[in-house]
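Side project, low priority. Logging it here so it doesn't get lost.
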Amino acid sequence: MTPHLAAGLEVTRDEGRRRALDELSDPVYGSQEPTLIERLRAWFMELLESLADLGGGVLSGQWYLVALLVLVAVLVVWLIVYLRPSRSRARGVPVHEGRPLSAADHRSAADAHEAAGAYAEAVAERLRAISVDLEDRAVVTPRAGRTATELAAEAAVVLPDEATALRDGAAVFNDVAYGDREATADSTRVMRELDERLRAARPAPAEEAHP
């Protein structure tokens, strides 16, 4: 290869830095959090400088492509880790997605979904019926954004005999909501039986509920 052609394929350190900054200014990166951009930019610039040092002060176009591919791979891995279900699990899925209906309306919806074989929807509506019913009976205080796990924990304080059943019901809801388990007819039966148990349950005496 002639010297002038080789020079055309080489990218100086300053040119590599400029291309890296242009690449990172692309809108696909701008949609991330500012702090993430700064971290990625610092990491990428350090990578470019390290490669430049290894290449005797001149970064070839091939090494630049390798570095860019590494950056994209890191971004993909980060997005997978950041968006994985465990992060959603930590925050929890609210029981109510919109304005709650009456407990009777949620039960009717649950029955209709169950009859139609829409078991995931039936599980969700049954837990919403349970949630509204517990709020109406002052077992738990009405609160927007409550998750199934929080509902079970709060209700168990007043209904300690139903603590295990409440946790089991929350687990069914969470498994379906997070996609860890496909809802089945058995899932809807568990939730229906939980609803019936809780409707018949009565709060424990104050000294028993709050030892």
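Brief comment: Strands lie at 10-12, 58-60.
Revisit when time allows.
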